[in-house]
Write a structure and sequence with these properties.
Number of helices: 4
Distance between the termini: 21 Å
Number of strands: 4
Length: about 240
């Protein structure tokens, strides 16, 4: 293979690697943005779930307070009815029994009033907590909405760039011999997207291993596309690197 052909193929391979590296970084950035958005939405769901939980707890407390208030009203009526019966009682035994009934009803009234006061305190506390969480949720949703707009725009730009690079990549890839193109793609898939690397100072910059002196010297001849014997990546000399022109 003539040196000019090898140089041309290496240029195409380096251009392909440049595009694939940029695309790889763009996809990583895209994934990070999607992860960030998912985390923001997860945090919002957590606050939303807590707000719902507090709302359910408040509703349960309201129902319990309503039931206690109904029982309190009933006990107060019992006190009134029992006291109204006292003037008509004719025997001491019956009088004592009704007095005991009145005392029991009054005790129940006091107990119910205390329980209702306790429920009121719980409702006030949970109501304040829910109000705070409502405000936190509103702020979180606003944050997610604003950040989502930014992320959606960045994702759109990334997708546009990826699409553009894909067209450029295909045009370059079609210029490679079929077997060389397959070798390049196989290396991209197996080596984390890095298939073409510079050899500098006698070492492969892909795996940082020293190349056999003969292999490194052969790179200057440009007789063939060479690979690192350690990581199998395609290697080249950069003429802009001092001492390697």
């Amino acid at each position: 293979m003539e040196g000019s052909d090898v140089q041309q193929q290496l240029k195409v391979l380096r251009d392909l690697q440049r595009i694939d590296t940029h695309s790889y970084e763009a996809r990583q950035q895209r994934q990070e943005l999607e992860n960030e958005l998912a985390e923001l939405e997860r945090e919002g769901e957590q606050v939303r779930a807590l707000v719902t939980e507090l709302g359910d707890a408040l509703e349960a407390l309201e129902n319990e307070r309503h039931e206690l208030a109904r029982e309190l009203e009933q006990e107060r009526e019992n006190v009134v009815k029992a006291e109204e019966r006292l003037p008509a009682i004719k025997t001491q035994k019956e009088y004592v029994a009704v007095l005991k009934e009145v005392d029991t009803a009054k005790k129940n009234v006091r107990d119910l009033e205390q329980r209702i006061a306790g429920k009121n305190d719980e409702i006030d506390r949970l109501g304040q907590e829910k109000l705070e969480k409502d405000e936190e949720l509103a702020a979180q949703e606003e944050k997610v909405s604003e950040r989502k707009g930014d992320i959606d725009e960045q994702l759109r730009q990334i997708d546009t760039a990826l699409s553009s690079r894909e067209d450029e990549r295909k045009a370059l890839f079609d210029r490679l011999p079929r077997m060389l193109g397959k070798r390049y793609q196989r290396l991209v898939d197996r080596r984390g997207g890095l298939a073409v690397v510079e050899a500098r100072g006698g070492a492969c910059l892909g795996c940082n291993m020293q190349l056999p002196p003969q292999s490194f010297n052969e790179l200057f001849r440009n007789d063939e596309v060479m690979t690192c014997p350690h990581c199998n990546r395609i290697i080249y000399l950069d003429p802009e690197t001092p001492g390697q022109a």
